[in-house]
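S., here's the first fold you wanted:
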Amino acid sequence: MTSKNKSREPAPPQNSRPGHGRRKAVAAGAIIAVLSLAAAACGSSSGSGSSTPAAGSSSGSGKLSGNLSISAQVFGAPILAPVLKAFEAANPGVHVEESVASSAAGTAYQTSLLTQKLANNLPDIVNPQDVLSPTLSTDGITQSLSKYLAKGEPYPQSYWLQNILASYIPTIGPGKGQVYALPNEADAVVVFYNKNEFKKAGVPYPTDKWTWSQMIADAAKLKVVKGGTQTQWGLCDTPDWQALYNPLMKAFGVTSLSETQADLASPGSLKAWQMLVAPTQNGDAVPYATYLSASAQCGTLFDSGQAAMFFGVRGNLPTVRPATAGKFDWDVVPMPFVQGVHGATRPTGAGSISWAMSSQAKDTTNTIAFFKFLFSAEGQDIAEKGYGVVPAIPSLLTADSVWQKLPGPPDNVGAFTTAAQTGTIAPQTPNTVYNLTQTDIPKAIEGVVDNHESYAQAFGTINTAINAAYPKS
């Protein structure tokens, strides 16, 4: 997943998934789906360029019975709903009941699950996202799936994109190396651009080989000032989003945040902050205060034509497409190259929402069987049709996959594949540290923008505070 809580905490309606779209912490219902399973499982996969067995085949008998309970966060429920519907239709004896519990995304969701855990009433399946997963596993809410994956249930661990799956594999602690959740998508950052505004300004469309300096130069040409007031910016660049600053710092040889320390004020870090913040001060990018305003998120500014470019994810499409229909033409392009410590690299952030087996799962056979359907070519096809999902599964990133054949815009769908395959996941940090970054990083940016502090001063102060929040060993 600030005052707007921007993170990969993959957000519908704007920059929903992370992954890493960013997710705003908004109050919403966590949907609980209870499935009474008593029918033969579905038999064949769809034509997505992959042949995968359908739900139930891992159980051996081909028959399922009993109950399965699923809890989804607000941003997970709409993705899951059509898959549940198809699963029920393919299995006529399966009855799906849904009830809405009062909850919210992110930390509030964690709290509701902790309450259920204390009552020994966790559902079989829960819905982490990349930045929340380490906390849920540490809290004992989710259990390791590694013993199932080792047996190919629901599929082998190699079935998923390893860079995206890494969000759910702790690198320290008792669960080190274990897989605690399975990613539903590879939600990696690309650049959305308004083709009409590029054409009007006489600026060539960006290409898959463009550079960061070219992007900023284009942004300067795309700004519009009328009557002394700027009415259009070239870029909305979300400088406090970890899916931007984390991979940009990585390009300069810096691990911005880890399980044990923060490095947000080293020379490489300061270079990244300046690249993100400076354009918001000179009119090339949307001012930080405007970006923070509740009514003017980057997707909204792009939809209205006020920002010619913004950093977004596939999860933005279900809102961007209807909001821009009939107004202007647009497309996407991969993140631009920067010259880093190891040469030219794309600073591409990535994230996902996921599904995990709870530590109190009562029917593990049905849980694994549903995962098998959900992550099959058929299950992923269903999710893809809503435009918001790029599968985190290499075999489903082929040109004949459903999501690659949907009518545009966008037309350059290969940008999402490039992003998914190269994306850098959110850092795994203790929850207290993660929460502090959401408030302190915006304070540091505001210190530079509003209080004219130096980058070293502003980010040095918050780096010290964040490091102090790490648990002492």
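And the second, which I think is the more interesting of the pair:
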Amino acid sequence: MFQTKVNGKNFEIVKNDESFLINGEPFEWDIVKISEDYFHILYKNKSYRAEVVKADRATKTFQFKINNKIHTVEVKDKFDLLLEKMGMTSGASAKINNIKAPMPGLVIDLKVKAGDTVKFLKQ
């Protein structure tokens, strides 16, 4: 199961064998890969040309151009949903303000992004 947000609208997607259910409804389409980032889609007797404009797999955020209109898609898989349910967010998005060593003198390495400020507090 996946939860997606497409241009601000939420959808629940379930994959069954070769088909998909979107918000509980069957989704029937035909998709053909034209080249690396280009696809041709037939849906409800209409033709669509799709292009992957941007794919950030770390944040699971994608931008598609479908018939010259940009669509932003955010995807959460079952593991993201489980972590969210447990009150845990992605480690990449969490900002750490204080780092404490388990024993004095045990911090061996500390990497800091350029422009960030680091203060060492003695406790």
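Why I say that: The chain has one helix and nine strands. The first strand starts at residue 2 and ends at 6.

Talk tomorrow,
H.
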